[in-house]
Specification:
The complex is a heterodimer of chains A (132) and B (150).
Chain A: E1 2-3, E2 27-28, E3 32-36, E4 40-46, E5 50-60, E6 63-70, E7 77-80, E8 87-93, E9 104-108, E10 111-117
Parallel strand pairs in A: 2-8
Antiparallel strand pairs in A: 1-8, 3-4, 4-10, 5-6, 6-8, 9-10
Chain B: H1 2-24, E1 46-50, E2 54-60, E3 70-74, E4 77-84, E5 96-99, E6 104-111, E7 122-126, E8 129-135
Antiparallel strand pairs in B: 1-2, 2-8, 3-4, 4-6, 7-8
The chains are: A mainly beta (132), B alpha+beta (150).
Chain lengths: 132, 150
Amino acid sequence: MVERTVATQQTQQVAPTAEGTRERERYVAPPVDIYETPEGLVVMADLPGVSKDDLEVRVDNHVLTIRGRARPAVQADPIYREYELVNFFRQFELTEKIDESRITAELKHGVLTLHLPKAEEAKPRKIEVKVA
Amino acid sequence: MADLWETMEALRREIDRAFEDFGFRTEPFFRTAFLPGRAARRYPLVNIYADRDALYVEALAPGVDPASLDISVLRNTLTLAGEKRRVPEDVRPEAFHRSERATGRFVRTIELPLEVDENNVRADYKNGLLVVTLPKAERVKPKQINVQVS
Protein backbone atom coordinates (compact mmCIF):
# COMPACT_ATOMS: atom_id res chain seq x y z
CA MET A 1 0.00 0.00 0.00
CA VAL A 2 1.63 3.22 -1.17
CA GLU A 3 0.71 6.53 0.31
CA ARG A 4 0.01 9.26 -2.17
CA THR A 5 -0.17 12.85 -1.13
CA VAL A 6 -0.79 14.42 -4.52
CA ALA A 7 -4.33 15.47 -5.23
CA THR A 8 -6.49 13.30 -7.43
CA GLN A 9 -7.45 14.40 -10.92
CA GLN A 10 -10.88 15.48 -9.77
CA THR A 11 -9.62 18.12 -7.43
CA GLN A 12 -7.09 19.53 -9.89
CA GLN A 13 -9.27 22.09 -11.53
CA VAL A 14 -8.28 25.22 -13.39
CA ALA A 15 -5.56 27.05 -11.51
CA PRO A 16 -7.05 30.13 -9.91
CA THR A 17 -5.79 33.41 -11.30
CA ALA A 18 -6.88 35.40 -8.26
CA GLU A 19 -6.86 34.60 -4.61
CA GLY A 20 -10.01 32.97 -3.31
CA THR A 21 -12.20 34.84 -0.90
CA ARG A 22 -12.09 32.04 1.62
CA GLU A 23 -8.95 31.23 3.46
CA ARG A 24 -7.53 27.94 2.35
CA GLU A 25 -8.48 25.20 4.77
CA ARG A 26 -5.79 23.50 6.75
CA TYR A 27 -5.50 19.75 6.97
CA VAL A 28 -3.55 17.28 9.00
CA ALA A 29 -2.92 13.63 8.19
CA PRO A 30 -4.50 11.45 10.86
CA PRO A 31 -2.26 8.74 12.34
CA VAL A 32 -3.20 5.31 11.02
CA ASP A 33 -2.63 1.65 11.72
CA ILE A 34 -2.77 -0.66 8.74
CA TYR A 35 -2.59 -4.41 9.09
CA GLU A 36 -3.18 -7.38 6.92
CA THR A 37 -5.49 -10.29 7.59
CA PRO A 38 -6.12 -13.35 5.40
CA GLU A 39 -9.31 -11.63 4.17
CA GLY A 40 -7.83 -8.23 3.42
CA LEU A 41 -6.45 -5.04 4.88
CA VAL A 42 -7.72 -3.17 7.91
CA VAL A 43 -7.09 0.59 8.16
CA MET A 44 -7.68 2.32 11.50
CA ALA A 45 -7.44 6.11 11.71
CA ASP A 46 -7.73 8.40 14.74
CA LEU A 47 -10.23 11.13 13.89
CA PRO A 48 -11.14 12.88 17.14
CA GLY A 49 -14.03 15.30 16.91
CA VAL A 50 -15.30 13.98 13.59
CA SER A 51 -18.90 12.80 13.51
CA LYS A 52 -20.37 10.41 10.96
CA ASP A 53 -21.91 13.26 8.97
CA ASP A 54 -18.63 15.16 8.73
CA LEU A 55 -16.66 12.19 7.46
CA GLU A 56 -16.13 11.34 3.81
CA VAL A 57 -14.52 8.10 2.75
CA ARG A 58 -14.27 7.40 -0.96
CA VAL A 59 -12.41 5.31 -3.48
CA ASP A 60 -11.66 6.83 -6.87
CA ASN A 61 -9.27 5.29 -9.38
CA HIS A 62 -7.78 3.04 -6.72
CA VAL A 63 -7.15 5.99 -4.41
CA LEU A 64 -8.67 5.78 -0.96
CA THR A 65 -9.48 9.21 0.45
CA ILE A 66 -10.30 9.92 4.08
CA ARG A 67 -11.54 13.42 4.74
CA GLY A 68 -13.08 14.61 7.98
CA ARG A 69 -14.10 17.84 9.59
CA ALA A 70 -13.43 18.00 13.31
CA ARG A 71 -15.74 20.09 15.44
CA PRO A 72 -15.11 21.09 19.05
CA ALA A 73 -17.47 19.56 21.58
CA VAL A 74 -17.73 22.76 23.64
CA GLN A 75 -19.05 26.14 22.63
CA ALA A 76 -17.52 28.53 25.17
CA ASP A 77 -14.63 30.95 25.50
CA PRO A 78 -11.28 29.19 25.22
CA ILE A 79 -8.93 30.00 28.10
CA TYR A 80 -6.16 27.47 27.50
CA ARG A 81 -5.19 25.63 24.32
CA GLU A 82 -2.94 22.71 23.58
CA TYR A 83 -4.40 21.65 20.27
CA GLU A 84 -6.50 23.01 17.50
CA LEU A 85 -9.16 20.90 15.86
CA VAL A 86 -8.49 21.17 12.16
CA ASN A 87 -9.62 19.04 9.27
CA PHE A 88 -8.25 15.62 8.51
CA PHE A 89 -7.16 14.49 5.06
CA ARG A 90 -5.19 11.50 3.90
CA GLN A 91 -4.98 9.43 0.76
CA PHE A 92 -3.69 5.95 0.08
CA GLU A 93 -3.15 4.23 -3.20
CA LEU A 94 -4.82 0.84 -3.27
CA THR A 95 -3.43 -2.03 -5.21
CA GLU A 96 -5.52 -3.83 -7.81
CA LYS A 97 -6.01 -6.69 -5.42
CA ILE A 98 -8.62 -4.91 -3.28
CA ASP A 99 -12.27 -5.59 -4.00
CA GLU A 100 -13.39 -1.97 -3.92
CA SER A 101 -17.08 -2.79 -4.02
CA ARG A 102 -16.99 -4.57 -0.67
CA ILE A 103 -15.12 -1.99 1.43
CA THR A 104 -16.83 -1.32 4.75
CA ALA A 105 -16.31 1.58 7.16
CA GLU A 106 -17.15 1.98 10.82
CA LEU A 107 -16.69 4.99 13.10
CA LYS A 108 -16.57 4.45 16.84
CA HIS A 109 -15.19 6.65 19.63
CA GLY A 110 -13.40 8.84 17.10
CA VAL A 111 -11.65 5.94 15.38
CA LEU A 112 -12.44 5.02 11.80
CA THR A 113 -12.03 1.35 10.92
CA LEU A 114 -11.99 0.41 7.25
CA HIS A 115 -12.08 -3.16 6.04
CA LEU A 116 -10.61 -3.55 2.56
CA PRO A 117 -11.31 -7.10 1.40
CA LYS A 118 -8.89 -8.74 -1.00
CA ALA A 119 -10.21 -9.63 -4.40
CA GLU A 120 -10.99 -13.32 -4.79
CA GLU A 121 -8.03 -14.05 -7.06
CA ALA A 122 -5.62 -12.50 -4.57
CA LYS A 123 -6.67 -14.58 -1.59
CA PRO A 124 -4.20 -17.20 -0.47
CA ARG A 125 -5.16 -20.70 -1.55
CA LYS A 126 -3.92 -23.84 -0.05
CA ILE A 127 -2.67 -26.25 -2.63
CA GLU A 128 -2.83 -29.84 -1.72
CA VAL A 129 0.20 -31.89 -2.59
CA LYS A 130 -0.56 -35.27 -4.00
CA VAL A 131 1.78 -38.04 -3.39
CA ALA A 132 2.27 -40.08 -6.52
CA MET B 1 -5.51 29.84 56.56
CA ALA B 2 -7.39 29.74 53.28
CA ASP B 3 -5.93 33.12 52.43
CA LEU B 4 -2.41 31.85 52.89
CA TRP B 5 -3.07 28.88 50.65
CA GLU B 6 -4.50 31.11 47.97
CA THR B 7 -1.57 33.49 48.22
CA MET B 8 0.82 30.61 47.69
CA GLU B 9 -1.23 29.42 44.72
CA ALA B 10 -1.17 32.88 43.17
CA LEU B 11 2.58 33.15 43.65
CA ARG B 12 3.22 29.75 42.14
CA ARG B 13 1.07 30.55 39.15
CA GLU B 14 2.94 33.81 38.71
CA ILE B 15 6.20 31.86 38.53
CA ASP B 16 4.74 29.42 36.03
CA ARG B 17 3.67 32.30 33.85
CA ALA B 18 7.12 33.84 34.00
CA PHE B 19 8.59 30.60 32.70
CA GLU B 20 6.05 30.41 29.94
CA ASP B 21 7.06 33.86 28.75
CA PHE B 22 10.68 32.81 28.84
CA GLY B 23 10.16 30.60 25.83
CA PHE B 24 8.97 27.33 27.24
CA ARG B 25 5.53 27.96 25.99
CA THR B 26 4.62 26.26 22.76
CA GLU B 27 2.28 27.98 20.40
CA PRO B 28 -1.09 26.32 20.05
CA PHE B 29 -1.10 24.31 16.89
CA PHE B 30 -2.29 20.87 16.06
CA ARG B 31 0.18 18.38 17.36
CA THR B 32 -0.21 14.76 16.48
CA ALA B 33 -0.67 13.65 20.02
CA PHE B 34 -0.67 9.98 19.25
CA LEU B 35 2.80 9.53 17.93
CA PRO B 36 4.92 7.38 20.20
CA GLY B 37 7.42 9.31 22.30
CA ARG B 38 5.52 12.54 22.22
CA ALA B 39 2.58 10.86 23.83
CA ALA B 40 4.72 9.97 26.81
CA ARG B 41 4.97 13.61 27.76
CA ARG B 42 1.44 14.85 27.85
CA TYR B 43 -1.48 12.67 27.04
CA PRO B 44 -4.24 13.45 26.46
CA LEU B 45 -3.89 16.99 25.14
CA VAL B 46 -6.53 19.29 26.56
CA ASN B 47 -8.25 22.54 25.71
CA ILE B 48 -9.98 24.42 28.50
CA TYR B 49 -13.02 26.61 27.92
CA ALA B 50 -15.02 28.73 30.33
CA ASP B 51 -18.29 30.53 30.51
CA ARG B 52 -20.07 32.31 33.35
CA ASP B 53 -21.04 29.15 35.24
CA ALA B 54 -18.56 26.45 34.42
CA LEU B 55 -15.18 25.31 33.15
CA TYR B 56 -15.01 22.79 30.34
CA VAL B 57 -12.00 20.57 29.84
CA GLU B 58 -11.96 18.99 26.38
CA ALA B 59 -9.46 16.17 25.89
CA LEU B 60 -8.32 14.64 22.60
CA ALA B 61 -8.75 10.94 23.30
CA PRO B 62 -9.90 8.87 20.32
CA GLY B 63 -10.29 5.14 20.74
CA VAL B 64 -10.39 5.13 24.51
CA ASP B 65 -12.67 2.57 26.08
CA PRO B 66 -15.20 4.66 28.09
CA ALA B 67 -15.32 1.96 30.76
CA SER B 68 -11.60 2.40 31.42
CA LEU B 69 -11.92 6.14 32.08
CA ASP B 70 -11.27 7.24 35.64
CA ILE B 71 -11.87 10.92 36.29
CA SER B 72 -11.49 12.57 39.68
CA VAL B 73 -11.44 16.07 41.11
CA LEU B 74 -9.72 17.14 44.29
CA ARG B 75 -9.84 20.84 45.17
CA ASN B 76 -8.74 22.45 41.92
CA THR B 77 -6.94 19.42 40.49
CA LEU B 78 -8.52 17.29 37.80
CA THR B 79 -7.09 13.85 37.10
CA LEU B 80 -7.83 11.98 33.87
CA ALA B 81 -6.84 8.34 33.63
CA GLY B 82 -7.73 5.60 31.18
CA GLU B 83 -6.50 3.22 28.60
CA LYS B 84 -6.31 3.35 24.85
CA ARG B 85 -6.29 -0.23 23.66
CA ARG B 86 -4.79 -1.66 20.55
CA VAL B 87 -7.74 -3.25 18.78
CA PRO B 88 -7.67 -6.10 18.09
CA GLU B 89 -4.85 -7.35 20.26
CA ASP B 90 -4.13 -10.59 18.44
CA VAL B 91 -2.63 -9.13 15.25
CA ARG B 92 0.87 -10.46 14.63
CA PRO B 93 3.57 -7.74 14.45
CA GLU B 94 4.58 -8.75 10.93
CA ALA B 95 1.02 -8.21 9.70
CA PHE B 96 1.36 -4.45 10.26
CA HIS B 97 2.01 -2.22 7.28
CA ARG B 98 1.85 0.86 9.44
CA SER B 99 1.59 1.45 13.14
CA GLU B 100 1.29 5.15 13.94
CA ARG B 101 -1.40 5.17 16.60
CA ALA B 102 0.12 5.03 20.04
CA THR B 103 -1.71 3.02 22.64
CA GLY B 104 -1.47 2.33 26.34
CA ARG B 105 -2.50 3.58 29.75
CA PHE B 106 -2.40 7.26 30.59
CA VAL B 107 -2.77 9.52 33.59
CA ARG B 108 -2.79 13.27 33.41
CA THR B 109 -3.29 15.82 36.15
CA ILE B 110 -4.58 19.24 35.21
CA GLU B 111 -4.61 22.20 37.50
CA LEU B 112 -7.74 24.26 37.15
CA PRO B 113 -7.49 28.04 37.30
CA LEU B 114 -10.25 28.39 39.88
CA GLU B 115 -12.28 26.52 42.45
CA VAL B 116 -14.97 24.18 41.19
CA ASP B 117 -18.01 22.52 42.68
CA GLU B 118 -16.58 19.01 43.09
CA ASN B 119 -19.98 17.41 43.62
CA ASN B 120 -21.48 18.38 40.30
CA VAL B 121 -18.75 17.45 37.84
CA ARG B 122 -19.88 15.53 34.80
CA ALA B 123 -18.02 13.90 31.92
CA ASP B 124 -19.16 13.10 28.38
CA TYR B 125 -17.35 11.13 25.74
CA LYS B 126 -18.35 11.63 22.13
CA ASN B 127 -16.54 11.21 18.81
CA GLY B 128 -13.27 10.61 20.61
CA LEU B 129 -13.45 13.85 22.57
CA LEU B 130 -13.78 13.71 26.33
CA VAL B 131 -15.52 16.73 27.84
CA VAL B 132 -15.46 17.28 31.59
CA THR B 133 -17.89 19.96 32.76
CA LEU B 134 -16.88 21.52 36.06
CA PRO B 135 -19.34 24.03 37.54
CA LYS B 136 -17.62 26.95 39.24
CA ALA B 137 -17.83 27.06 43.00
CA GLU B 138 -20.51 29.47 44.19
CA ARG B 139 -18.03 31.83 45.79
CA VAL B 140 -15.95 32.36 42.65
CA LYS B 141 -18.88 33.07 40.36
CA PRO B 142 -19.21 36.68 39.28
CA LYS B 143 -21.86 38.61 41.21
CA GLN B 144 -24.11 40.99 39.40
CA ILE B 145 -24.16 44.37 41.11
CA ASN B 146 -27.06 46.66 40.49
CA VAL B 147 -26.28 50.32 40.16
CA GLN B 148 -28.56 52.48 42.27
CA VAL B 149 -29.53 55.72 40.68
CA SER B 150 -30.06 58.38 43.26
